[in-house]
Write a structure and sequence with these properties.
This protein is mainly beta and 323 residues long. The chain contains 2 helices and 26 strands. Strands 12, 14, 15, 17, 22, 23, 24 and 26 form an 8-stranded antiparallel beta sheet that branches. Strands 1, 3, 4, 6, 9 and 11 form a 6-stranded antiparallel beta sheet that branches. It has a 5-stranded antiparallel beta sheet with strand order 13-16-25-18-19, with no helix packed on it.
Length: 323
């Protein structure tokens, strides 16, 4: 037996060597039925054209979706759909008679799922309404730096704001919104990594004033083998340590929009209008979302992950989902 073979036989089959992280091959992607401009405006695709992801009881046939109910709950929305077969489309309690063709309308329900009923669609996009800016574009008023409790000042993230952009360099560190806490909400944030394989995140329902004790929507434009379908553990849109993103659609050095929708124990994310996560937190309740389910309001934090972090964020908009 050669020494090389002996070494290989000592590696457990259940723990294969980790693949290196790579930047994705190909251009940045957008949700089904969306233009680049619509994706950056905050439109979300609820049907990917290929699967029933994000739906309960829906049927996929020849690239069309019919029947079923969206798993995500929305507040007021603008909706656009390509209707193949008409019928009654229900948004919460509101019935919408629709005919084949293009549907464009506004629906102002407080908290609602979309029920297709007998309606058949080839695309369905929505834009959440009522989002309010949380960054004034000039300075860090209303934001507070939360330092890592055990690291010296030289190791902490550096935060700045100018010309409509918040920038985070180095880390670890966090920047916390001081205005308000949020429980059920829709958040949209524009992000750009200024270098390859930069790691960051958005924490929500966090314990206020504490260093990143919340749910985390990942910002990390990494995959394996440069293949966008082979996501890394922390790919953009994932919920850290809870749910992988199903595809990496964003790229470093380019602006992308990430949406986080949290209603009760249902958490969904979209990146450039493409739904990356649809997750139900079925853990026992806990004050700390790192340990269990938290549905009550908590703080919003932006994370700078490590010394190599170099991130920019601009629009940070959020709306509460009413009960």
């Amino acid at each position: 037996m050669t020494s090389t073979l002996a070494i290989l036989l000592t590696i457990p089959l259940s723990a294969p060597p980790k693949e290196p992280w790579t930047t994705p091959k190909g251009p940045i992607e957008y949700g089904h039925g969306l233009t680049k401009e619509q994706a950056l405006e905050g439109w979300l695709s609820l049907f990917d054209g290929k699967s029933t992801f994000g739906w309960n009881g829906a049927i996929l046939r020849k690239g069309q979706l019919h029947g079923g109910r969206s798993r995500a709950f929305f507040g007021p929305i603008q909706i656009r759909a390509k209707i193949v077969k008409g019928g009654i489309l229900r948004i919460g309690r509101i019935p919408l008679p629709v005919r084949p063709g293009i549907l464009t309308t506004f629906v102002r329900e407080k908290r609602a799922q979309i029920n297709l009923g007998s309606v058949r669609i080839s695309s369905l996009i929505v834009r959440p309404l009522g989002l309010e800016d949380q960054f004034n574009g000039k300075n860090l008023d209303s934001w507070k730096v939360i330092k890592h409790p055990r690291l010296p000042l030289s190791r902490q993230a550096k935060w700045s704001a100018e010309k409509g952009v918040i920038r985070a360099i180095g880390g670890p560190g966090a920047l916390e919104l001081q205005k308000k806490s949020f429980g059920d909400f829709c958040l949209q944030i524009d992000v750009r990594a200024r270098a390859n394989l930069v790691n960051g995140g958005v924490f929500f329902r966090s314990i206020p004033g504490k260093f990143m004790l919340g749910y985390e929507a990942q910002i990390f434009n990494a995959c394996h083998g440069r293949d966008r379908s082979r996501v890394a553990r922390y790919s953009t849109g994932a919920i850290d340590d809870r749910q992988l993103a199903r595809r990496l659609v964003s790229s470093d050095r380019e602006w992308f929009t990430m949406t986080v929708l949290a209603v009760g124990n249902q958490i969904s994310t979209w990146v450039n209008g493409y739904q990356t996560v649809n997750w139900v937190d079925e853990r026992e309740p806990d004050e700390n979302p790192r340990k269990g389910l938290r549905v009550k309001p908590g703080s919003l934090q932006i994370q700078a992950h490590d010394p190599k972090t170099d991130l920019e964020v601009r629009r940070i908009r959020i709306v509460e989902i009413q009960k």
